[in-house]
Structure to design on (702 residues):
């Protein structure tokens, strides 16, 4: 019932119905008006005709009876008026003499019963010597003097019923009604048809608006009526075209990565959601590959933003090619293509919707690693990148985008830890690893707060005479349950969770205080403190170092700061701005792990460093690897030419020492002389026999 009611109500409220009803209304009003006018005209006409007719009868009667009346032939007069009364259009007649005495009568009359008619009409007619007419409701009365030989011999009074001469109004109305119905029957369907036809464009517009609301905007409405509707349709077309362009633009902004033109994270997530749902329903398998470029940040920093973007574009192209290769070999099955996306920064993802076997994913991962390993040509330079790939298989490793991406990310981190340029499949144990990392990070935060970090010192020895030249401060963590931990156990986690800056500050302050404490005891040992990238790049780094020196009252020339090659390479201007004010006060700077980075030598030698620290890997490999030996020789020769000090790290054997000494290394550091040790051991190392100093130290609580 309800749908019928609904449909009826819709039809009733439709424009066609409204216009049709309007037409019907106008038609009926017009007919009513015409009928009214017609009725009015007919009434006037009727009245005129009735009067004429009545007068004519009275005139005929007067003429017909005059001679008989003059002769006194009342009988004949009576016969004559009787014959008139028998007609339908005469109701009654009477005749009076000039003194108004009724001579004869017939039919229905008033006043005629008395001997002397007191009829005012008769009085007026006789008085005026001409016909007098009175119109009553249904009757017209005419009194006409009867002349004979020029004198009045009486008067005739005729009662004529109006109905006898006029057409009845009811009939008129019936006729008009019939005409009205006929007109409505003919014109209303015509009106409905015409309205419907002229509303055709409106229906088109409505349909177009409906389609537009269901997001189909690439449409055109064709209305060629040449009227306002055509103007409206054209306005609609323009509006749709603009909306279409805007929606496409919004879609692009929301779902496309502007640098590489690849789908972005949001778009990838949606696709992954769709594909994983289908995989679960159809008992199918697919893979998500999570890619993180190795060394991209470093390359990006040295290239600058514009070139960095160009490099990302080139990476995206190679990834698309690798994915296309997979699509071609798998296109036959279901035809669902792969999707490469950029999540942001140097992170990309690849979705492989239908896998015959997980080994297919491994093949694609290997192809990607090989593709990215090939050098990129950017502004005439060859740039080398690498990529770490994590693979998660769905639905086995997760059936929703969040879990899958997290697991693929964990697998990627594992690949990265293994040195990059490789891929790893997700394993359940990685979740455990991630959990442990989380616990570690929390504990590390506690460690910074609760002063669990301590500083060990490793001696640096002069090659020339074997004397103590200085020390390197190396952080240790006195873990409440795990005991003393080396940086290897926590430095990477600290870097990843951003705690490395705080840890560096703690070490710098402690080292300054402790070395200043020793100095007060008369033992002056310079100290080298490692500075991480994050710490170095913090706003006001130089000021914080000066503050630490001042707080500890340590002369700046006793402090050396070690920067790794990658930090030194980043932003030359920034590095100079941070180094120069400190160098001006006497702080010296060393490049740590020299030789392991990919720095441009010409650039590095122009930076104002004081010391090169040859990485321990070269020192270790020198005896077996001629290449390592050449690197050491080269660095030492270069440092000599530049008049810089050199520290050979990781010296463990006398052979290594002898070779380094022969090649002109100025300082050596390594287990051969001493492992990293607590401050009191360093003090003893410095002054092995000074009991006096030991006693003073004990008194000072060191
Ligand atoms: P590094 O700055 O290159 O420090 C030298 C590392 O080599 C130290 O490891 C030291 O114990 C080790 N070493 C010294 N001589 C020998 C040797 O003869 N043989 C071998 N096999 N190893 C030797 P450690 O203390 O474990 O520190 C590792 C790294 O952690 C440091 O490398 C440094 O990069 C970082 N690190 C240590 N303390 C800090 C710190 O306070 N801040 C920052 N940012 N990094 C630190
Ligand atoms: Mg160091
Ligand atoms: Mg080092």
């Amino acid at each position: 019932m309800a749908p019928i009611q609904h449909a009826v109500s819709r039809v009733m409220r439709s424009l066609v119905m409204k216009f049709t009803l309007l037409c019907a209304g106008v038609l009926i009003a017009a007919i009513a008006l015409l009928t009214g006018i017609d009725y009015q005209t007919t009434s006037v006409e009727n009245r005129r005709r009735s009067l004429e007719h009545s007068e004519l009868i009275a005139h005929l009667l007067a003429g017909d009876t005059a001679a008989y009346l003059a002769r006194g032939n009342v009988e004949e007069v009576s016969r004559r008026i009787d014959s008139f009364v028998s007609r339908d259009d005469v109701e009654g007649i009477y005749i009076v003499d000039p003194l108004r005495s009724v001579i004869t009568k017939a039919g229905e009359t008033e006043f005629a019963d008395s001997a002397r008619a007191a009829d005012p009409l008769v009085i007026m007619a006789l008085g005026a010597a001409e016909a007098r007419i009175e119109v009553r409701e249904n009757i017209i009365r005419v009194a006409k003097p009867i002349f004979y030989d020029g004198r009045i011999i009486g008067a005739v009074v005729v009662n004529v019923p109006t109905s006898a001469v006029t057409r009845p109004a009811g009939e008129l109305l019936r006729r008009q009604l019939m005409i009205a119905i006929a007109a409505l029957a003919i014109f209303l369907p015509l009106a409905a048809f015409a309205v419907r036809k002229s509303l055709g464009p409106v229906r088109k517009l409505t349909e177009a608006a409906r389609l537009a609301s269901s997001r189909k905007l690439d449409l055109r409405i064709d209305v060629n009526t040449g009227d306002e509707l055509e103007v409206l349709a054209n306005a609609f077309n323009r509006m749709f075209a603009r909306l279409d362009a805007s929606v496409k633009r919004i879609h692009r902004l929301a779902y496309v990565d502007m640098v590489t033109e690849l789908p972005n994270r949001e778009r990838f997530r949606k696709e992954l959601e769709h594909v994983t749902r289908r995989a679960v329903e159809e008992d199918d398998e697919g893979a998500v590959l999570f890619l993180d470029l190795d060394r991209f940040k470093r390359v990006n920093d040295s290239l600058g933003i514009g070139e960095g973007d160009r490099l990302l574009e080139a990476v995206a192209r190679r990834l698309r090619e690798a994915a296309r290769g997979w699509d071609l070999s798998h296109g036959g099955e279901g035809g669902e293509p792969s999707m490469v996306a950029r999540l942001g920064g140097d992170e990309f993802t690849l979705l492989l919707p239908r896998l015959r076997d997980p080994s297919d994913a491994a093949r694609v991962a290997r192809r990607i690693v090989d593709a990215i390993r090939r050098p990129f040509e950017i502004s005439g330079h060859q740039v080398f990148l690498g990529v770490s790939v994590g693979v998660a298989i769905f639905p086995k490793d997760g059936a929703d985008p969040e879990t899958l991406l997290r697991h693929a990310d964990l697998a990627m981190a594992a690949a990265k830890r293994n040195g990059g340029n490789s891929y790893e499949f997700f394993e359940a144990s990685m979740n455990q690893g991630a959990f442990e990392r989380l616990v570690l990070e929390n504990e590390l935060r506690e460690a910074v707060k609760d002063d669990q970090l301590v500083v060990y010192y490793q001696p640096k020895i002069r090659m020339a005479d074997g004397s103590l030249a200085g020390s390197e401060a190396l952080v240790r963590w006195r873990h409440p349950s795990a005991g003393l931990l080396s940086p290897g156990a926590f430095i990477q986690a600290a870097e990843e969770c951003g705690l490395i800056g705080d840890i560096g500050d703690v070490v710098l302050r402690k080292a300054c205080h402790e070395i200043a404490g020793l100095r007060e005891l008369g033992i002056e040992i310079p100290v080298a403190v490692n500075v991480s990238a994050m710490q170095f790049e913090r706003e006001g780094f130089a000021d914080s170092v000066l503050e630490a020196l001042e707080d500890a009252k340590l002369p700046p020339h006793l402090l050396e700061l070690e920067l790794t090659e990658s930090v030194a390479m980043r932003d030359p201007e920034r590095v100079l701005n941070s180094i120069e004010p400190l160098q001006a006060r006497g702080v010296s700077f060393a490049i740590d792990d020299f030789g392991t980075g990919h720095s441009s030598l010409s650039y590095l030698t122009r930076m104002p460093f004081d010391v090169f620290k040859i990485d321990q890997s070269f020192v270790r490999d020198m005896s077996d690897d001629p290449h390592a030996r050449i690197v050491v020789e080269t660095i030492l020769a270069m440092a000599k030419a530049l008049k810089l000090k050199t520290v050979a790290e990781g010296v463990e054997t006398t052979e290594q020492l002898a070779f380094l000494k022969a090649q002109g290394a100025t300082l050596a550091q390594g287990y051969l002389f001493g492992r990293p040790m607590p401050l009191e051991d360093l003090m003893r190392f410095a002054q092995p026999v000074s009991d006096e100093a030991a006693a003073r130290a004990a008194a000072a609580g060191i």
Remarks:
- Residues 452-700 form a domain with the TIM Barrel fold (CATH 3.20.20.450).
- The first strand starts at residue 92 and ends at 96.
- Residues 126 and 145 are 6 Å apart (CA to CA).
- The pocket of magnesium ion (ligand 3) is lined by residues 592-593, 613, 615, 649 (CB under 6 Å).
